[in-house]
Design brief:
The complex is a heterodimer of chains A (210) and B (116). Chain A has seven helices and no strands. With 210 residues, chain A is mostly helical. By secondary structure, chain B is an all-alpha fold. Chain B contains three helices and no strands. The longest helix of chain B has 31 residues. The relative contact order of chain B is 0.10. The chains are: A mainly alpha (210), B mainly alpha (116).
Chain lengths: 210, 116
């Protein structure tokens, strides 16, 4: 019942604390947390892809993929997003060298490519709706607009975030917080490109094969 | 502090980004060509090949743009990715499988069932 610890107990306790408690700098786990958010986002897209997979053939005697999809336009759209991916990479490389002007310039170009992607997508949607291929027309079109629209909405918010970050970097420079945000947006932006690979393969290319 | 420096933080190099970009362009162009060009393969073959290209391109993006390594964040990014992929496969394969069979087995047939 003594209060004194035996040597072994003391050693065990020290070991326990050594293994379990080390310093975590503020924001040190942000990237992992953001990654886990992206994984949950991935599940949203999985469900939308599954919905499209199930309903994608139900045209309700309305227009099908072959009547609506314009593959050269989709190819152009795909290249916009791909180009924006590498320009974002160049922004990251500039930020590693602490080059504020370079980072801002590449972010701006990335934003332009993102905006071009959105513009082309909106043009496509407007064209489809003009033809009467609205989300209400058939289960195929409901699933199509939900899946592709959700991706487009993500890109929209990515651009809003990108502009916000450019203003932040303009005001505070490449400090620790902004570098962290830049890394998070990098994950977000490249993740959207990964989702787009699924979209152009399963929706557009496979749609033309049906 | 140096003992716990975040060496696992993703840091890309110019070479990595350029490699990833070139691979992505190739892996995107070929599926588009297979569908848009006059390729005499069967539709099933083309579908299989473009799905394979998509899978490879996703891995290319993960490695060269998202800088995934088995070691990043002490392995937690890979662990969460694998867990997510399991759920994605269950969701996609399960939905398609179940709904396909619901469709073929439960939709009313037009021909009248033959009398016993």
């Amino acid at each position: 019942m003594g209060h004194a610890l035996t040597n072994e107990q003391a050693a065990a306790r020290t070991l326990f604390h050594l293994q379990d408690e080390h310093d975590h700098e503020a924001g040190g786990s942000t990237l992992l947390g953001f990654w886990i958010y992206l994984m949950s986002d991935c599940l949203i897209f999985a469900v939308l892809f599954a919905t499209y997979g199930v309903l994608g053939g139900n045209y309700a005697a309305g227009p099908g993929p072959k009547d609506l999809f314009d593959l050269p336009l989709v190819a152009l759209n795909t290249s916009m997003l791909l180009l924006s991916s590498i320009t974002y990479g160049f922004a990251m490389l500039s930020s590693y060298r602490n080059n504020v002007a370079g980072t801002q310039a590449w972010l701006f170009i990335t934003g332009l490519f993102g905006a071009a992607f959105l513009g082309i997508e909106l043009y496509e949607f407007a064209h489809m709706i003009h033809l009467g291929a609205t989300p209400q027309r058939s289960a195929f079109l409901s699933a199509f607009f939900t899946l592709v629209g959700t991706h487009g909405l993500h890109v929209t918010f990515g651009i809003v975030w990108l502009i916000t970050l450019m203003l932040q970097i303009g005001k505070h420079g490449l400090n620790k917080a902004n570098t962290r945000r830049l890394a998070c947006l990098s994950l977000f932006w490249h993740f959207l490109d990964v989702i787009w690979i699924g979209v152009f393969t399963f929706v557009y290319l496979m749609g033309m094969l049906r | 502090m140096s003992a716990h420096e975040h060496a696992s933080e993703p840091h890309g190099t110019l070479k990595e980004y350029v490699t990833g970009f070139i691979l992505s362009v190739i892996l995107t162009a070929i599926p588009f060509y297979l569908v848009m060009g006059d390729v005499s393969w069967s539709k099933a073959t083309i579908a299989f090949v473009i799905m394979a290209f998509a899978a490879v391109q996703m891995v290319v993006h993960m490695v060269y743009f998202l800088h995934m390594t088995p070691r990043s964040e002490d392995g937690w990014t890979l662990t969460s990715l694998v867990f997510t992929l399991i759920l994605v496969v269950i969701t996609l394969a399960g939905s398609l499988w179940v709904m396909y069979h619901m469709d073929t087995n439960m939709m009313p047939k037009h021909e009248v069932a033959s009398p016993l």
